[in-house]
Structure formats: C-alpha cells, structure tokens
Amino acid sequence: MEAQNVEVAALVQKITALHADIAKLPSLSPSPDANALFTSLVMACVPPNPVDVTKLSPDVQGMREELIRLCSDAEGHLEAHYADMLAAFDNPLDHLGRFPYFSNYIDLSKLEFDLLVRYIPGLAPSRVAFVGSGPLPFSSLVLAARHLPNTLFDNYDRCAAANDRARKLVRADKDLNARMSFHTVDVANLTDELAKYDVVFLAALVGMAAEDKAKVVAHLGRHMADGAALVVRSAHGARGFLYPIVDPEDIRRGGFDVLAVYHPDNEVINSVIIARKMDAHTKGLQNGHAHARGTVPIVSPPCKCCKMEANALQKREEMATTTELSI
C-alpha cells in the first residue's frame, strides 16, 4: 500500500507541474511548446497507475477539472488546425493520416464497433447520431467508411464553425457526403429527433463536469427509442486527468441497461461504456430488483474468449429474468 501511495503521489506531482506549465502557455493552439507539454501529459497518464482521481484532495480535484478544460480547448484548436489543413486538398479524406492521432481513432472506432456487435447481436443500425462531433469527426468518418457502410450519420456539435469545417472534409466523397450530415445544436435541445436513432455516441467532452454528463445521459434516456444503443466515452485511472470519468450508475439512473465497460491498456485513451435504453417494463423491474443483473462486466478487448463472456452475460440475464418472473 505504501508503494502505491508513493506512486500516486509522484504522478500527482508530475501532473500538477505539467498543469502549471500548460496554464502559462500564451495560446493553446498547436506550437512546439504546446505540443511538447501535451505529449508529456498524455505519456504521463497512459501507463497503469493505482490512482483513483475521484478520491484525491479537493485542491487536486480543482486542478484536474481545470486541466480537463485546458485539454478540451487544446483539442479543439488542434482539430481545427488540421481540419483547415486537410480542407486544402482536393479530397481531404485521402490525407487523414496526417493527423498525429489518427491511428488512435481507427483503434477506438473499431473497438466501439466490436463491442456493439458483441453485446447487441444482430445490430444493423440504419441511423446513428454522434453527439459532440467537432471539426474533425474522425469517429463518424471511420465508422461510416469501415464498419457501417449502409448507415446514415447525423453529427451534432454546438459550434457552427466546427460543423462548417467538418462538412468540407466530406465534400469530395460522394458516398460519405450523402450519408453524413452536420447540425449545430446543443444536445439539451434535441428531443423528438433522438427517437429515430438506433445508436447514439456520446463524445468524451460533452458535459465535462460529472453532474453535467449525468444530465446529458438522463436527457438521452428520456428521448431515445426503447432498445436503442448508447455508447459513452469515459476515462479510467490516470487517464481521468485528461477526460471526465462517467459513473455507470449515472447511466443506469438515466434509464439504460449498462451492458459492458471497457478500460484500455494501450494508446487508446478513452474507456467505452456500452448501454441500451430500457423500455418502461424493464426499467420498472430494475427499479424493483436493482441488483438482479449483478456486476457490470469490465471487459477485455473482443477476442476468442468473447463467446464465453457473452454466454456468461446471457446466463446472468436469464437468471435475472427467471428471478423476476418467479416473484
């Protein structure tokens, strides 16, 4: 335990120093100094660490919240910079690899798709929403091009300039230009529209404070269609210094059945939570038997053992249903 405390203290000290240096930057736009600092920050947060950022002191919590806001602003500047660079090409999509973290989006999108297929068998979405798509909607682009070639994608972002940049990226691709649309709106103002989606993706930086994220999830739970899938990006461990951490219980309270939680151990930063909107009957049963399904599985990447894990999940669901029917 003492060794873990020392490890956590060393990490907090390092992150605190990086936060101080980042806060002093004259601009969060890409530059040698900014790039070096944010690279150091990511490298500090990726290795496994026993830290639980939700249990750190109030001062450190305040530093973490400000750091996440700085990371969000810097990410916006970085994506806008590269969106403008890519837009100068005749076909911007041919040059996406110029973005330094493009391979991470490839891996994250494949992971999310594999988890969806794994935990919602037979899923063939006709329409998908991505909330918080930004000026470089890599996730939608990769999912549409590589995994869901017959699906329509509606991308939502509050920033009109971000959507204008995103539209330029698909202008030369006849297929994606026809299947991807971009809407300038706050998710809190989406109501009836949400019922038409088979899957809704919630970006990591939408509703950055924990209580705001819970409100967004509850809003989605009120308006999404019964049985629709929700994919929420979260963070775990030291990666919680970069992105907000989403409590699966907040997703359950929002009216969803949480099917799986995946925490990466490689260069992919975001955790992934897969959930499904409950109908009124199922929600009533869960409220009456809150622990019937047992612990949400913390899963490894889809692999040859997936069938065993999926079968185990199915058995738990069958046992819960049997229990509910017998009461």
Describe this structure in words.
β4, α8 and β5 form a beta-alpha-beta unit. The C terminus is likely disordered. The chain contains eleven helices and eight strands. The chain has an eight-stranded mixed β-sheet. α1 crosses α3, α3 packs across α6 and α4 crosses α5. The chain folds into two domains: 97 residues; 225 residues, Vaccinia Virus protein VP39 (Rossmann fold, 3-Layer(aba) Sandwich). It is an alpha/beta fold. The longest helix has 30 residues.
What's the CATH first level of the largest domain?
Alpha Beta
The largest β sheet comes out as: 8 strands, mixed
* SS field, number of helical segments: 11
Look at the helices and sheets and give the structural class.
alpha/beta
Domain module count: 2
Global geometry: globular
CATH architecture of the largest domain: 3-Layer(aba) Sandwich
Order of strands across the main sheet: 3-2-1-4-5-7-6-8
Average of per-residue pLDDT values:
88
Determine Rg (CA atoms, Å): 20 Å
Organism: Zea mays (Maize)
Function: Synthesizes nicotianamine, a polyamine which serves as a sensor for the physiological iron status within the plant, and/or might be involved in the transport of iron.
Family: Belongs to the nicotianamine synthase (NAS)-like family.
Catalytic activity: 3 S-adenosyl-L-methionine = nicotianamine + 3 S-methyl-5'-thioadenosine + 3 H(+)
